[in-house]
């Protein structure tokens, strides 16, 4: 039986305020949890799973986590899940430290200017991981990468990408020698750029795009050639197309 205090603690982690206070977050579902546990990037606090969910772990993993695994009933898992239907396994992890200094030379780095939809952020993180992008800089208004919906969308890529929050204007100004590319509706078509080995790729807010303040710092405005009549592209889709085109 999960105690009331544990239920309250895990439920509180649905809110950024408490994720920051406790320096913790949770992930749900056998695939995501298994991958996060195997990679061992995040320190695991505890695991809650049904008998069926326990079957999804290999023996060695169960043995190594024997003191942290709690087998619970479906209704108990429902109490701590962030989703309408709980998914057999939930694990609580400590956040990983954010590096203070990152080498951005000869690398592509994503910059997110107020991406607010958790699903979009999760997909961008997962896409960045697919293309080998190691760092994403996020404005303070960008969705929290440890939001349960973001964690779910990343499919464990959250452990392999450095996600930093702060004043993105300062980051761009500090790295003045690195070229800055802004994804906008009116810019040079991607096909005219070829491969890009170093630079910041800036993706803007879902409805407002990139802020004027940030646009003043960019070296190139890039756009994805349109064939049909759609007014715009989803931010995560746009990020994927750009990365595929320039890498």
Account of the protein in words:
The protein is of the alpha/beta class. Helices cover 35% and strands 22% of the residues. It contains eleven helices and ten strands. The strands form two sheets. A six-stranded parallel sheet has the order 7-6-5-9-8-10, with helices on both faces. Strand 5 (108-113), helix 7 and strand 6 (135-138) form a beta-alpha-beta unit. The longest helix is centred in the middle third of the chain and has 13 residues, at 118-130. The protein starts with a helix and ends with a helix. The model has no long low-confidence stretch (mean pLDDT 94).
Summarize the structure.
It is built from eleven helices and ten strands. The protein has 247 residues and is of the alpha/beta class.
List the SSEs and their pairings:
Blueprint lengths: L3 H9 L3 H7 L1 E5 L1 H10 L4 E6 L1 H4 L4 H6 L4 E3 L2 H7 L8 E6 L13 E6 L4 H13 L4 E4 L9 H7 L7 E4 L2 H7 L5 E10 L9 E6 L7 H4 L4 E4 L11 H12 L1
Parallel strand pairs: 2-3, 5-6, 5-9, 6-7, 8-9, 8-10
Antiparallel strand pairs: 1-4, 2-4
Provide tags for this entry.
six-stranded parallel β-sheet, four-stranded mixed β-sheet, alpha/beta, 247 residues, 11 helices
Spatial arrangement of strands, main beta sheet:
7-6-5-9-8-10
N-to-C order of helices and strands:
HHEHEHHEHEEHEHEHEEHEH
- In percent, how helical is the residue content? 25-40%
What would you report as the Rg, rounded to the nearest angstrom? 20 Å
Stretches where pLDDT falls below 50 for ≥5 residues? none
